[in-house]
Amino acid sequence: MIEYRVTKYDPALRDASGAYLVDDWTLVKDIGRAFGGVVLTEGEYRRVEQAYINSAICFLRAGGLNSLTAEGIENPKGLALDFGEGSVLSLEEVGDVIRQILREEFWCRLECQGGFLHFGWDYYMYIGVPHRCPEAELLAEGLGLFPEEFPSPYKEIPDDSDRNL
Prior knowledge:
- By secondary structure, the chain is of the alpha+beta class.
- The protein has helices at residues 42-62, 91-102, 134-142, and strands spanning 2-7, 34-35, 38-39, 67-74, 88-90, 107-112, 115-120, 124-129, 146-149.
- The protein starts with a strand and ends in a 16-residue tail after the last strand.
- The relative contact order is 0.23.
């Protein structure tokens, strides 16, 4: 499996430890605030949000994945969701879920045999696919995102309780 981190953050602007060095927006609530002297508009926020959705769907399709299962749902606001734990979502449904996760309405991992889609804080997206997806990499770059090979920190750790130590 190839794992990607796809973000709006230019890797050239990271320090040796990987920390991003530029003050940048990270939340939908940042609309109207200035970063580096530029105010984040609703239009720019929506453009970037859609770039994440389009990139994720492209990677998943290029990887031959047609659906993902919602796992580990965290819904502290108690929002009414159109799906539940273990629901299988088509790629058409995944776009709306991505939007809601990016807006921090709830959180979950989206997974299937051979792939995944995970989200971290501050607009970090992790994608796992069975093989490299150069066309999806190019699409993401064309949309202003930066795909990098990078493992997801949100993979479930297998239960070792039965392991003999």
